[in-house]
């Protein structure tokens, strides 16, 4: 039986259908085909690795500013923020006197006085701490209660800045809560003067009796100089806002007042 030679495929059909055979075959075809692998091909692998590493170095240089060693930029913002916070906290303590007064953004405010006596205000860090600010107004407490029953009450206390002394120290060296004398205004009307007081045994006894009360108002009996008197009081949480060395504000936090404080106290040095 005679053998018939197999028909040869055109070079274009071989490239189209059996192109993968040219990469591993050993037959000689047209000149435009991909040349067979040579012994130099394995050397291309380290060349690719070298190029990839060079690309990585180029990206690193572009990312970190041209240096071969990347700088720890991610740690710098955290360190900067920590230092900034420490500086600001120390600045606020030195500026606003939070370390000396002991008062924070939320304080306990107590208004009290005998039924026929004057109004006393005391601000404490918490019910067990000594009052950082205790002041007596010339206004009768009965008159203040009537004002509060009619609506919102705004009390402004003003003191004067003293001129600079020969040593160059001004009155701003005295903290605002340590001023001794004030002018008092209630809803824009002048109501006499007010003076800072030290917490004595009588005041301590009253504040200790009100320690379990976090918010509320009422009347409690008291004995003074051999006779029984009635002490009117009101206690609530206050929000303390410090504007500057010469201005502070205390806003009473009342959940039943629809966001409007019933009592606000402003301290101003003018």
TrEMBL record:
Bias kind Basic residues: ranges: 13-22
One GO-annotated biological process of the protein: hydrotropism
Pfam families with a match to the protein in the record: DUF617
Chain positions covered by the region annotation Disordered: 1-70
Protein's name according to its UniProt entry: Protein MIZU-KUSSEI 1
Species in which this protein is naturally found: Linum tenue
């Amino acid at each position: 039986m005679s053998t018939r030679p197999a028909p040869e495929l055109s070079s274009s059909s071989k490239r189209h259908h059996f192109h993968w055979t040219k990469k591993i075959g050993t037959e000689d075809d047209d000149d435009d085909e991909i040349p067979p692998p040579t012994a130099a091909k394995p050397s291309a692998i380290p060349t690719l690795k070298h190029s990839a590493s060079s690309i990585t170095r180029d990206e690193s240089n572009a990312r970190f500013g041209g240096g071969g060693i990347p700088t720890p930029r991610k740690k710098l913002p955290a360190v900067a923020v920590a230092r900034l916070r420490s500086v600001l906290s120390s600045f606020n303590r030195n500026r606003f006197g939070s370390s000396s007064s002991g008062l924070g953004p939320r304080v306990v405010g107590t208004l009290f006085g005998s039924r026929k006596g004057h109004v006393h205000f005391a601000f404490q860090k918490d019910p067990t701490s000594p009052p950082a600010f205790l002041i007596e107004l010339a206004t009768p407490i009965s008159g203040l209660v009537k004002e509060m029953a009619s609506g919102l009450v705004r009390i402004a206390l003003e003191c004067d800045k003293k001129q600079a002394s020969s040593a160059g120290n001004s009155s701003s060296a005295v903290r605002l809560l340590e001023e001794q004398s004030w002018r008092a205004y209630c809803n824009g009307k002048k109501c006499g003067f007010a003076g800072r007081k030290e917490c004595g045994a009588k005041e301590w006894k009253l504040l200790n009796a009100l320690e379990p009360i976090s918010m509320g108002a009422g009347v409690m009996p008291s004995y003074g100089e051999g006779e029984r008197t009635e002490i009117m009081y009101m206690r609530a949480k206050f929000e303390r806002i410090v504007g500057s060395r010469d201005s502070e504000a205390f806003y009473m936090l009342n959940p039943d007042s629809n966001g409007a404080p019933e009592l606000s106290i402003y301290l101003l040095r003018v």
